[in-house]
Amino acid sequence: MADETEQQLREKIAAQKGLIANLPSLRSIVDETGLTSPETKARAQLIKELSDNEDRLELLIESKRVADVVRLQDELHPPLDSEDCPICLETVKHVNSKTTIRFYCCGGFTCTKCSDERMAKYTAEGFDEMYRGKCPLCREKMPIEGDYKEIGSMLLKHANKGKAWAQMHVGNKYFNGRNGYDLDRERGLKLIEESADQRDPDGLLHLALALAYSGETLERDESKYVHYLKEAADLGHPDAQLQLALTYERQDNEKMLLHYITLAASRGDSTACCLLGGYFTNADCGLPKSLILAKHYSEKSLEVDSFEPDDKPVSAYNFSLASLHLGLERYEGVLNIPGHSPIPTILFWARKAQEGESLPIIGGATKLISIIEAKEKSRCTNCRKEAEGSSFKRCVRCLGAWYCGKECQVQHWKAGHKVDCIKRK
Known about the structure:
Helix content: 55-70%
Strand content: under 5%
Number of strands: 6
Number of helices: 17
Radius of gyration: 26 Å
Strand order of the largest sheet: 1-2
Largest sheet: 2 strands, antiparallel
Distance between the termini: 41 Å
Shape: elongated
Order of helices and strands: HHHEEEEHHHHHHHHHHHHHEEH
């Protein structure tokens, strides 16, 4: 079915390119009739339809590559810890802290999808109508968030019964001296090791991290670090897959780097998506250069909640660059056609990139904004009248369009800026 869809897309793209090749260039149409003429809009719409199909084709091919990587991983390391969510009955392929939400009262879990739905409902309505503050599995009252004494008591009960997930949690808290637990690295490490001995993915991951970073309790042992990290990664833990990929990067092992970074990205890991976006931007790690996939993975990274704040500015910058170059390439350098202009989006994400701490990213984003703004604010975005020493007022919603007066702003909004305008957050 996928091969048939791919062939259909290739045929459609070839036909669209043939049609466009026999038409006057977009640039010549704009020069002759203007940015808002029916002729310009019709030509730009053809380009958009072609671009949409090119996007679909590249995403389809990439989905097949990712599926092949996942399939190979399952063949080499068949999932051993799959369980059904007791709420939706969907199978959770790998049970770990990234795929499930654990209830400390009874020790049961639900999948993250069910938990997200419950939290979305609670956020929207301000009342937990579904569970009414009780565990959906055992119906016991759940502890209040931040009540470390009650939570700790529940965790210890399960840890003392030899539950690997609880041993990992308690061990990690002792090891780091968090959430009301005294700092006791020896006791914490012992519990983490007991969890890892049961091949708990989170226990294996935290044991690897302890071996890598503890310093005081253990000497760093790279071979053991990689061993436990790979165990956790092959049990489907996306954090371990990401860390293992970065380890292979340091070892210049591109094949294994790409394998595990793809696995982590397929599970929605923000950092992995950010890195893949960069690889497709620069044709690194044996991947072809693809602005479409660079934009796709950067966007995925931006959509995912992440505990790594540095991911977002990098992804924002990569997304803005990919959007710029795709726009220039597809629209023959004409970026001001209402309803087809990427300029508001480019500037929005470039400004987001400035919020990070990486000086190269901040510098690149600042330069990008400066170049675009210097060019765009010199003319009215609608009528193209030159500023002639006086500054134009810009769209206050997106800060990505400049106007000589209210009449031009209204005309431009109706002509298509309402499609391009992106609200600042």
